[in-house]
Design a protein that fits this description.
Length: 419
C-alpha cells in the first residue's frame, strides 16, 4: 500500500477527527485524490494510462491540481478533457502516444476543419499547464512520417494536442517531440499564452517530417506565443482562419518554413480573416522564409485538406520585425496567392482574398541563400495594398538583390521584376 495513504488513516486513529474530515482522500484506479489534488500513477506493465488521466481530470478538473509526476505515461486511446475550470496540470514526465496507427487513424477526435483530428482535446477556463521544461508529449511521430511517406495531410494523422474552447489559460515549459502531425492547434480560444515551448519533430530517415507544424490557430483571439524553439519539417507557427490579435515573440526556428499566414481561402465562398499579427525578435536558422503568406486561388480544385480554393476575406495589419536570419534558404518575404490542389497550376490572378498592410521590418538582419529578398505574387483580382519592406539593406544575399512583385498597389520599394 502507498504509504502516503496511511497518513489520514493514522490521524483518524489518533482521534484527529476534525482534521480527518478536512482531508478527502480517495482512490480511483491509478488516481490518488487528496482534496482537490489528483496524482496519477502509471501502469506498471505499460498498459494504457489514458483512462486514469481522464479520471483525474474528472475528479480534479475544476478548482484542482492534476499531477503527472511519473517518468512515463503510455497514451493508447484518445483523450477529451474539455470544460475544465481553474485547473493546474503539472507534468514532470513523458506522455508517450501509442503505436497502433490503425486505432489512431480511425479514432481521432475531429478538429471540425480541414478534415483533421486530434489525439487529445483540452479546453476550459483558467487552465495552467506547466511542464517545468521537462514535461514532454512524445507523439511517436517517426511511425507516422514513415506511414505518410511524404503524402500531404495523410488522413487520420492526429494533431498531438488541440487546445479548444479555452479562455484565459497558460501553457508553459512544455516539450513536444516527434508529433504525429501538427504538434498543436488552438481553436475557438481566447486569451491564451503559450511560452517556453520546445517542439522537435525530426525524421530519422529520408522520409520527411511533413505536416509537423509547431502550431496552427483557428477562430481564436489574443494568442501569445513567446520563447518557442521549433525544429520541424513544416510551418513553425501558422495562423489560419479567423486568427486575430496574435503575438509571436522571442523564438528560435531551426529549419522549417518560418512564420506562416495561411494557407487561407481554401473553402469556396467562405469568409475568413486574419488581423493584427506581430512576429518579433525571432532567430531563424536555415528556415525557408522569415514570414510568408499563402492563399488559395479563386478557382476551387478538389476539396480540403489537399484541394480547395475560392475562399474570400482578408488578412491585414501583419508585421514581421527584428528577425535575425542565419542562412535562410529562400526569401525574407514571400506572398503567394497561387496555392491550389497539388499538381494544379495557374489561376494565380483569381483569388479574391484581400491582403493589406503587411510589413517586413525594421530590424531584419543576416543572410539568405538566394538572390531574392522578396517574392510577392498578389492576385490580379485583389491586388495587395500597404505592403512595406523596411531596412532590407541589412540582409546579405548571395548576389543580386531581387524584389519580385506582381499586383502590388503603389509599392514603396523598387520591384526589380515580376513573378
Ligand atoms: C496491465 O495492468 C492492468 C492494470 O493496471 C491490467 O488491467 C492489464 O490486464 C494488464 N495488462 C497486461 C498485458 O498484463
Ligand atoms: C489496434 O487498433 C485496432 C482498431 O482499434 C484494433 O482492432 C486492434 O486490435 C489493435 N491492435 C492491437 C495490437 O492492439
Ligand atoms: C465552451 O466552454 C464553455 C465553458 O468554458 C461552455 O459553456 C461552452 O458550452 C463550451 N462550448 C462548446 C462549443 O463546447
Ligand atoms: C528511428 O525511429 C524509429 C521509431 O522511433 C526507431 O524505431 C528507429 O530505431 C530509429 N532509427 C534510427 C536509425 O535512429
Ligand atoms: C478525411 O479523413 C478521414 C479519416 O479521418 C478519411 O477517411 C477521409 O478520406 C478524409 N477525407 C478527405 C477528403 O481527405
Ligand atoms: C525559454 O524556454 C526554455 C525552454 O524551451 C527555458 O529553458 C528558458 O528558461 C526560457 N527562457 C526564458 C527567458 O523564459
Ligand atoms: C532535435 O531532435 C533531434 C533528434 O532527436 C536532435 O538530433 C536535435 O539535436 C534536436 N535539435 C534541437 C535544436 O534541439
Ligand atoms: C493587436 O495585437 C496586439 C498584440 O500584438 C495587442 O496588444 C493590441 O491590443 C491589438 N490591437 C487591437 C486593436 O486589438
Ligand atoms: C470569420 O469571422 C468573420 C468576422 O467575424 C465572420 O463573418 C465569419 O463568418 C467567420 N468565418 C467563419 C468560417 O466562421
Ligand atoms: C495594428 O497593428 C499594430 C501594431 O502591431 C497594433 O498596435 C494595432 O492595434 C493594430 N490595429 C488593429 C486595428 O488591429
Ligand atoms: C491600413 O493602414 C492604413 C494606414 O495606416 C489605414 O488607414 C488603413 O485603415 C489600414 N487598413 C486596414 C484594412 O487595416
Amino acid at each position: 500500500m502507498d504509504t502516503s495513504s496511511m497518513k489520514p488513516l493514522l490521524l483518524n486513529v489518533l482521534g484527529f477527527t476534525l482534521l480527518f474530515s478536512q482531508i478527502d482522500i480517495a482512490f480511483s484506479g491509478a488516481v490518488r485524490r487528496t482534496g482537490k489534488t489528483c496524482t496519477v500513477s502509471a501502469s506498471i506493465n505499460g498498459s494504457d494510462d489514458a483512462p486514469a488521466i481522464l479520471e483525474a481530470f474528472r475528479l480534479c478538473g475544476t478548482n484542482g491540481l492534476i499531477q503527472l509526476h511519473e517518468p512515463l505515461y503510455h497514451i493508447e486511446s484518445v483523450m477529451s478533457t474539455t470544460g475544465l475550470s481553474n485547473v493546474e496540470i503539472d507534468l514532470m514526465g513523458t506522455m508517450l502516444w501509442g503505436t497502433n496507427l490503425t486505432y489512431w487513424v480511425s479514432s481521432g477526435i475531429p478538429l471540425g476543419y480541414l478534415n483533421a483530428t486530434t489525439a487529445w482535446a483540452l479546453g476550459g477556463d483558467q487552465i495552467v499547464f506547466t511542464g517545468h521544461d521537462v514535461g514532454t508529449l512524445d507523439g511517436n511521430g517517426q511511425l507516422w512520417y514513415n506511414l505518410a511517406d511524404g503524402v500531404s495531410n495523410y488522413p487520420g494523422r492526429p494533431i498531438n494536442l488541440l487546445v479548444t474552447n479555452a479562455t484565459d489559460s497558460l501553457f508553459t515549459g512544455i516539450r513536444f517531440v516527434q508529433s504525429q502531425y501538427w504538434t498543436m492547434a488552438v481553436k475557438d480560444s481566447e486569451d491564451i499564452v503559450l511560452q517556453g515551448i520546445y517542439v522537435n519533430s525530426t525524421s530519422n530517415n529520408s522520409v520527411p517530417a511533413r505536416n509537423t507544424d509547431g502550431v496552427d490557430t483557428f477562430f481564436s483571439n489574443k494568442i501569445t506565443f513567446k520563447n518557442w524553439t521549433v525544429v520541424n519539417g513544416d510551418d513553425c507557427i501558422a495562423l489560419k482562419a479567423n486568427s486575430t490579435n496574435i503575438l509571436i515573440q522571442d523564438s528560435v526556428f531551426h529549419g522549417a518554413l518560418g512564420v506562416a499566414i495561411g494557407s487561407i481561402g481554401q473553402y469556396d465562398g467562405v469568409f475568413e480573416m486574419i488581423q493584427n499579427v506581430t512576429a518579433e525578435r525571432i532567430l531563424a536558422i536555415g528556415s525557408r522564409y522569415a514570414g510568408y503568406i499563402k492563399t488559395w486561388t479563386g478557382v476551387p480544385q478538389g476539396f480540403p485538406p489537399n484541394g480547395g480554393g475560392g475562399g474570400v476575406g482578408f488578412a491585414t495589419n501583419i508585421t514581421f520585425k527584428d528577425f535575425i536570419l542565419q542562412k535562410v534558404t529562400d526569401n525574407v518575404a514571400l506572398i503567394t496567392q497561387c496555392t491550389s490542389f497539388e499538381g494544379a497550376t495557374g489561376d494565380c490572378d483569381t483569388s479574391l482574398f484581400q491582403l493589406s498592410n503587411i510589413t517586413w521590418g525594421p530590424g531584419i538582419v543576416g543572410t539568405i541563400q538566394t538572390d531574392t529578398l522578396a517574392a510577392m505574387q498578389c492576385s490580379g483580382d485583389a491586388p495587395c495594398a500597404g505592403i512595406s519592406l523596411v531596412g532590407f539593406n541589412n540582409v546579405v544575399t548571395v548576389g543580386a538583390r531581387e524584389i519580385k512583385c506582381s499586383n502590388i498597389i503603389d509599392p514603396v520599394f523598387d520591384c526589380t521584376g515580376s513573378i
